[in-house]
Amino acid sequence: MYVAMNRFKVNTGSEEAFEAIWKGRDSTLSEMKGFQTFHLLRGATNEAEGYTLYASHTVWASYDDFSAWTKSEQFRAAHRNAGNNKPLYMGPPQFEGFTAVEGA
Question: What is the DSSP letter of 82?
Answer without folding.
Answer: G
